[in-house]
Amino acid sequence: MKRAALFACLFALTTPVFAEAPGDTAGPITNQAERDAIALRVRGGAACANCDLFQIDLSYQNLAGRDFTGSRLRQSEMQIVTADRARFNRANMSLANMFGGRFSSADFSDANLEQAGMVGGFYGGARFHGANLTGANLSGAELADAIGLSQAQLDLACGDHTTQLPRGMRVEMCR
Q1: What number of CA atoms fall less than 13 Å from residue 60's CA on the CB side?
Q2: 9-39: burial string, b at 16+ Cβ within 10 Å, e else
C-alpha cells in the first residue's frame, strides 16, 4: 500500500500539467494540492506552459529560458528572479511582484501585466507587443532596449524619473 502511494506521488510530480487557459482575474483554476505539486516542479527547474501558478512564490529563482506561455502567474512573487529569454507570452501576470528581476530578451507579447510591480527590473531586449500594462509600476525599470513597447501602452502605466524608456517615449509619474 505504501509503495502504491509513493508511486502515485512520484507519478504526479513527473507528469506534465496541462491546465486550461488562464482567466483574467478568476480564482484558482486547479485545486490547492495540484497547484502545490506544480509549484514544486517549477521551483525544481521545470517549464510550465499553460499552468495555473496563481500566487506562486518564485523569488530569487533562475527561470532563464523557461516557457510559461499562457500560464496564470497572477499575484505571483517574482522578486530578484533571473528570467532571461523566458517566454511569458499570453501569460496572466496581473498584480505580479517583479521587483528587481532580470528579464533580458524575455517575451511578454500579449501578456496581461495589469497592475504588475515591475519596479527596478531589467527588460533589455524584452518583447512587449500587445502586452497590457494598465496600472503597471515601471519605476526604476530599464526598458530602453525593449521591443514592441508603444506609447499607448506606456500611457496606461506609471514610472518615475529613473525609468529608462526607448527614445522619444515617456511615462506618467506614479502617485
Answers
A1: 0
A2: eeeeeeeebebeebeeeeeebbeeebbebbb
Closest by CA to 20, choosing from 60, 78, 94, 71, is: 71
Give me 29's grid cell.
483554476
Residue type, 25: T
Say which residues have a Cβ less than 8 Å from residue 31's Cβ, sequence separation at least 6.
none
- Mean pLDDT along residues 22-39: 69
Residues in the chain: 175
Q: Are the C-beta atoms of 130 and 112 separated by less than 8 Å?
A: no
Decide: helix, strand or coil at residue 164.
strand
What's the whole-model pTM score?
0.83
